[in-house]
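Key result, reporting period 2: structure in, sequence out.
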């Protein structure tokens, strides 16, 4: 089968032919219908060899949906041809976090060598994907797989971050989304669907600001030296009760600290290497800072239900599998409108 692989440190993604996988006992084989390209893939492909936590080559793609092609021995509960989404942050399934459905925070994954597809295990950017356990699958029903595939990360990750900030996002509050790309443009929609907060989107690109407005941001502001002042102005000097940073680079984490309100919350989701100092006086009183990772199994079910209810609609650009390297090039250059989705 064809697969999109990251093969050597510092190299570019390549389309190669690899053997078709076969499901062993307890596993499920999917015929991939769609796979999303995430900026985290770009981050991983920029890491030096000593930071890379898995061997190469790696088949990319940690956002995947497909139809059931074959069930390994002993697998029940799914039928061939059924359309499913893959829950990506695989865990051990039995530690205290996994028992809560929070496999993203599995306590034993590293020790047991368990890694998500596309981030250690062979990923979804291929014609077939081997899924280790049917508990990682959520039925899609009649959801359009192409628009649904980004929900497995670009939807789930902001959903998880927003859910923990919900108590702060009361009527009259303000939420700021920094970076209106794949995750950010879904975050804007989630905030509108889940809260009564005013939503302000920040980005460095005029096209992304336009997309943010189109998907429901009340205000869209250029992310530059004057952004903190503008947000203060728009909030009567108070600042934002919740800031979601989908860039996470030094200029944006600094900005988050400047525009957050007293008792506000900052979620640093982006992997841009920015950090925040939290000593007394470094931030307004009682600000909480978190660095959430992906989301839980039940949260994925909730996000898919929101899409089914029509509350969120991901903007996608589609690419054939041979064009996947181009999709990554465009993502790297900041030129994707919404999410890039590869159709193998
Ligand atoms: P993306 O490239 O689609 O979007 C990033 C957006 O940020 C773009 O619109 C870009 O114009 C904008 N941007 C860049 N610099 C900016 C600045 N200084 N101020 C404001 N906006 C700026 O990327 P994505 O796939 O949405 O991923 C976003 C980030 O989240 C990445 O760092 C990715 O690695 C990370 N991520 C984290 C998790 C997690 O679990 N924590 C999960 C998925 C992705
Ligand atoms: Zn991702
Ligand atoms: Zn576990």
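The corresponding designed sequence is given below.
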């Amino acid at each position: 089968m064809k697969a999109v692989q990251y093969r050597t440190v510092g190299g570019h993604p390549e389309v190669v032919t690899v053997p078709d996988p076969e499901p062993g006992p307890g596993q499920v084989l999917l015929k991939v219908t769609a796979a999303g390209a995430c900026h985290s893939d770009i981050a991983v492909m920029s890491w030096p060899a000593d930071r890379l936590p898995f061997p190469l080559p790696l088949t990319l793609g940690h956002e995947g949906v497909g139809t059931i092609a074959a069930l390994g021995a002993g697998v029940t509960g799914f039928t061939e041809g059924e359309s499913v989404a893959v829950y990506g942050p695989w865990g051990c399934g039995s530690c205290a976090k996994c028992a809560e459905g929070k496999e993203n925070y599995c306590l034993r994954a590293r020790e047991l060598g368990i890694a998500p597809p596309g981030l250690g295990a062979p990923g979804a950017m291929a014609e077939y994907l081997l899924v280790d356990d049917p508990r990682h699958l959520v039925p899609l029903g009649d959801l359009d797989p192409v628009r649904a595939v980004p929900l497995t990360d670009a939807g789930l990750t902001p959903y998880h971050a927003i859910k923990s900030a919900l108590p702060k996002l009361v009527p009259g509050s303000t939420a700021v989304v920094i970076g209106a790309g794949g995750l950010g443009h879904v975050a804007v929609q989630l905030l509108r669907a889940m809260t009564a907060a005013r939503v302000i989107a920040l980005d460095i690109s005029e096209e992304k600001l336009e997309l943010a407005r189109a998907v429901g941001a009340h205000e869209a502001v250029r992310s530059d030296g004057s952004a903190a002042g503008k947000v203060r102005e728009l909030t009567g000097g108070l600042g934002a009760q919740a800031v979601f940073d989908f860039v996470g680079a030094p200029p944006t984490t600094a900005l988050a600290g400047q525009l957050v309100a007293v008792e506000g919350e900052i979620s640093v989701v982006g992997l841009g290497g920015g950090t925040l100092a939290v000593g007394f006086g470094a931030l307004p009183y009682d600000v909480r800072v978190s660095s959430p990772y992906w989301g839980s199994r039940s949260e994925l079910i909730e996000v898919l239900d929101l899409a089914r209810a029509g509350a969120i609609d991901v903007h996608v650009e589609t690419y054939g599998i041979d064009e996947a390297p181009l999709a990554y090039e465009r993502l790297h250059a900041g030129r994707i409108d919404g999410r890039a989705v590869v159709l193998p």
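The first strand starts at residue 2 and ends at 6. Residues 184 and 246 are 6 Å apart (CA to CA). This case is discussed further under Risks and Mitigation.
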